[in-house]
Design a protein that fits this description.
The chain has about 220 residues and is of the alpha/beta class. The chain folds into two domains: about 150 residues, Cytidine Deaminase, domain 2, CATH 3.40.140; about 60 residues, no CATH class. The protein is built from eight helices and ten strands. The strands form two sheets. The chain has an eight-stranded mixed β-sheet. Strands 4-5 form a two-stranded antiparallel sheet. The chain is globular and about 45 Å long. The chain binds zinc ion. The site of zinc ion has 4 residues, from loops.
């Protein structure tokens, strides 16, 4: 049974964040909502933080400010978890990560801890080499969550258009840079998603078209 569904562009955005600071850990929050028992992640956001090669700490103000922003935008979403990178040492929860996660689960029991390791991707250039895992702590044990990508074209486009309407520039910039990587990466995930490649191709074409329009409209 799947525990988490994630929009592919959100995953790409997180990966991109990790790649921009390839030698140090980065972190941010996951935004989405609970659909039945499944956490649907539709966006990520971040803010001031201090990262080293083996540790990262988000400023205390980051999550409250993001929560406030989501509310102000009138979105029916909320913070459903957090992400951070483990550059080059694989995806797991350290004892500090477990403490962080347990604290967050007290506030939201379904809270997701997403860990990404972009290291191999950076060196090989093959997006499929990026490692992504999601965790939760249950009865003092770390559980690896099953996740799948949301590959419904309409849903992805709607999510994307929502972002455009909110003028999420960070997202647009990220999108522009990751288009190709995203496509390649998803190709590697084909084992997981089998017959979805046709859908991905459609999405890619659609996103390329939108990006093309954006490039003309937005000077940035
Ligand atoms: Zn960690």
């Amino acid at each position: 049974m799947v525990d988490v569904r994630v929009h592919p562009l959100t995953l790409a955005k997180i990966l991109r964040h990790g790649m921009q600071f390839s030698g140090i850990e980065v972190a941010g929050v996951l935004i989405g909502r609970l659909v039945g028992d499944v956490v649907e992640i539709s966006d990520s956001d971040t803010g001031p933080q201090i990262g080293t090669t083996g540790h990262v700490k988000l400023a205390r103000s980051v999550a409250p400010l993001i929560a406030e922003k989501i509310q102000r935008q009138g979105r029916s979403e909320y913070i459903v978890g957090w992400y951070h990178s483990h550059p080059g040492f694989g995806c797991f929860l350290s004892s500090i990560d477990v403490d962080t996660q347990m604290g967050l689960q007290k506030m939201f029991s379904q809270c997701v801890a997403l860990v990404v390791d972009p290291h191999d991707f950076i060196f090989s250039g093959r997006p499929g080499d990026a490692e992504v895992k999601m965790f939760r702590v249950q009865d003092d044990e770390i559980i690896t969550l099953e996740y799948e990508l949301i590959l419904d074209t309409d849903k992805i486009l709607r999510n994307f258009m929502d972002h455009l309407e909110r003028g999420s520039e960070q997202y647009i910039t990220a999108l522009d840079k990751i288009r190709l990587e995203f496509y390649e990466w998803n190709r590697r995930l084909e084992e997981k998603i089998n017959d979805a490649s046709e859908g991905i191709e459609q999405i890619r074409e659609e996103l390329e078209r939108i990006s093309e329009i954006l490039r003309q409209v937005k000077p940035t």
